[in-house]
Specification:
Number of strands: 15
Helix content: 25-40%
Distance between the termini: 56 Å
Radius of gyration: 25 Å
Structural class: alpha+beta
Order of helices and strands: HEEHHEHHHEEHEEEEEEEEHHEEH
CATH topology of the largest domain: T-fold
Length: 333
């Protein structure tokens, strides 16, 4: 009888304790979303804090100003006006920063990334015009107008050494836009969020599960709903560049949108995609493009020598896709 009474009291206490813990448990935070269009693509923002009513309009206004400085598709934009001038006085901090960082990363990568590549991009049909064919004479002619050394920039003054030289920050602007929007959110006190523009991403803090944000890296052979791999990101950016979607076939050959600024030819190596991690999304964006130009071996050596976090998906001689990680990526916790 005594043992039954003890068992009954134990059951009552257990129910009370479990009930108490149930009501004390922290509910999973709500994830709020904001989305829109910018730079010819879309943006998505996820927040764990209920956004202020005016936040979306502030973000849209910020991106509108950003585009008015850096979009080559807007005739009145600041960069479009620069491309029509031999001497230009820079007005916005956005263009100034891109000029500074574009020059720095171009020099760092030995010209594999170069913001003056636009005439070649247009020549190969990835800009404003469609093409039927390209010959060596055309490439050599356009190459004389490519190279960051043809643009002198000091403080706010830009001097272009030839009127045919054109600047285009498309290979870095989406990443920079992610940084700009992220800075706005942090200034407003948001701590746990994810910002994505056209596939370039920055993750701050943790997700609603209290874990690093889970980000998928596209499978070059598959669809976006089935990523190649998934990684956790906390206070880091990821940018991916690849030749598996933006290309066309010309006389039986695959012509990719990644153009080598030094040879003038589309990239023709075994790299399918490159993903780069950095605390600065603009840097990850630019380096991913540069690595696609370099090719697997040169890019991996470059990343390892500079302790850069990079992942390379390539097709080997047997036609099988493989993943190679830089030393810094492997060392991530």
């Amino acid at each position: 009888m005594e043992s039954k009474r003890k068992a009954w009291w134990f059951s009552v206490v257990l129910v009370i304790v479990l009930g108490f813990l149930y009501f004390l448990r922290e509910e999973k935070p709500t994830t709020y979303g904001i989305s829109g269009e910018t730079m010819g693509t879309t943006y998505t923002i996820k927040l764990l804090q209920n956004p202020q009513p005016e936040l979306k309009s502030e973000i849209d206004q910020l991106l509108l100003e950003f585009n008015s400085a850096l979009s080559t598709y807007i005739p009145e934009s600041e960069i479009s006006q620069l491309n029509l001038s031999d001497t230009f006085q820079v007005r916005s901090l956005y263009l100034k920063f891109m000029l500074e960082q574009g020059r720095r990363i171009s020099r760092l990568t030995g010209g594999a990334f170069d913001p003056t590549v636009m005439p070649l991009v247009n020549l190969w049909g990835f800009g404003f015009e469609n093409i039927d064919q390209v010959d060596t004479v055309q490439v050599l002619h356009v190459l004389q107008y490519v190279g960051i050394e043809k643009v002198a920039f000091d403080h706010d003054l830009v001097v272009v050494k030839d009127s045919a030289v054109e600047l285009d920050f498309s290979a870095i602007a989406k990443g920079y836009g992610v940084d700009v929007v992220s800075a706005l959110l942090k200034d407003k006190g948001y701590q746990n969020f994810m910002v994505e523009i056209g596939g370039e991403i920055y993750c701050s803090g943790v997700n609603s599960d209290g874990r690093p944000w889970q980000i998928g890296i596209d499978d070059p052979r598959g669809d976006r709903s089935n990523p190649y791999t998934i990684i956790g990101l906390e206070n880091l950016s990821i940018a991916t560049s690849g030749n598996y979607r933006n290309y066309y076939m010309l006389e039986g050959k695959k012509i990719s949108h990644t153009i080598d600024p030094k040879t003038g030819m589309p990239s023709a190596n075994d790299l399918l995609s490159v993903s780069v991690l950095s605390d600065k999304c603009y840097e990850a964006d630019a380096l991913a493009t540069a690595f696609m130009v370099m090719g697997k071996d040169s890019a991996l050596s470059f990343a390892d020598e500079r302790d850069l976090m990079a992942a390379f998906i390539f097709s080997d001689s047997l036609g099988k896709d493989q993943l190679i990680l830089s030393k810094a990526w492997k060392a991530r916790p």
